[in-house]
Amino acid sequence: MSLRIALLGLLEAVGPASGYDLAKKFEHSLNHVWQAGHTQIYPELVKMAADGLVAIESEGARGRKIYAITSEGTRELHTWLVEHQPAVTIRSETALQAFLLPLLDRDEAIAVVERIRDGFAARLAVLECHPRDGIGSYAANLGRSQTSAGLAWAEETLADLRR
Amino acid sequence: MSLRIALLGLLEAVGPASGYDLAKKFEHSLNHVWQAGHTQIYPELVKMAADGLVAIESEGARGRKIYAITSEGTRELHTWLVEHQPAVTIRSETALQAFLLPLLDRDEAIAVVERIRDGFAARLAVLECHPRDGIGSYAANLGRSQTSAGLAWAEETLADLRR
DNA sequence: GGGATCATGTAACGAGTTACATGATTTG
DNA sequence: CAAATCATGTAACTCGTTACATGATCCC
Question: Which end of chain A has fewer CB atoms at under 10 Å, N or C?
């Protein structure tokens, strides 16, 4: 369901695009929001076209197919945005390592938290490069905010473990 | 893979337990870390027993089966904790709504962010009840830290939208 | 005895990943 | 002309959810 919404949202926001284009967007601007590879996107677009939410607007070079959102697609997207209570499903390997930290001895735990800290720092560095405005800017702010919080947790936890 | 690790970690941390017990832990203490229902846990325990990572220690009333982690299981868990670089896969409906916020008009966007804010507040309230020490305390701190950051983002975004 | 909770499972489906496969076009 | 990139797809598999099914035990 959410994959559909993400695809509809991108088509609504940036205009008609190919599956290939959309896959690129997932890799870059949507990376900290929703992830999907081309092998998931191509079949989904076909299903969405069958359901009347998108339509092939034109076909370009190299078999390129440009999809556009339909008015039915716009309606579906709008309804979801306005009415859908976002479900919170957390599956975080990082949080799992944090959870199990007390099973390790001091030095191991420190090494694990250092790796987690580096991961947060790297993600934050990527997010800092995201534009401050335009579609996705709110999500980028949310990502920066939460990643900074993770980084701060790592620093505090390291201080605590070293004490 | 991570489901296995979560199950091994729980068995290591709290001692032998049944699938039912483990499902309860997922519902409560692991809720902000990893999610899994009993329909996923029961078959996984059977596979893990076949792989020698856990063993049925005893059987109690009402067909209750108590699993214990084996030394091979402990080794597997330890290796994962120390060596595995946590993979970051984000699929957040909340972030998706944030991403698509610019597609809504002002009042709709405000209503959506208010709902998101309430969701963060509710999660934070639950996390505040988690014990400050023992297994899971580090993960609870991380969850509190990141959820607070989400809440702060919502407040700032609301202020921005109302301006 | 009846309702809540304990306790385990299966089957069908949908979502997501990995590996494989193919060919067109552009750029050096 | 070779390598990179564009562009699409399928198949097999794993992971996760929903719905269904069953029975034991505890407590009022």
Answer: C
Q: For chain D, which bases have at least one atom within 7 A of a protein Cβ?
A: 6-11, 15-20, 23-26
Report helix, strand or coil for A92.
Answer: coil
Q: How far is CA A65 from CA A43, B11, B23, B27, in A?
A: 13, 51, 46, 44
Q: What is the rounded distance in angstroms from the CA atom of residue B121 to the CA atom of residue B142? A: 15
Cβ contact (<8 Å) for A35 and B2?
A: no
Global model pTM greater than 0.85: yes
DSSP state of A100: H
Give the residue ranges of DSSP H helices in A84-136. Answer: 93-100, 106-128
Contact list, A118 vs chain B (CB under 8 Å) = none
Q: Which of A34, A93, A135 sits opposite B87 (nearest CB)?
A: A93
* Percentage of residues in chain B having pLDDT higher than 70: 100
Residue A61 pLDDT: 84
Selection from B89, B112, B107, B102 nearest residue A137 by Cα: B102
CA of B118: which chain A residue's CA is closest? A85
In the sheet where B17-18 sits, what is the strand order? B17-18, B65-69, B54-59
Mean pLDDT by 10 residues, chain A (163 residues): 97 98 96 98 98 96 95 98 96 98 98 98 96 94 98 98 94
Contact criterion met (CB < 8 Å) for A103 and B148: no
d(CA B151, CA A146): 10
Do residues B7 and B22 touch, judged by C-beta distance below 8 A? yes
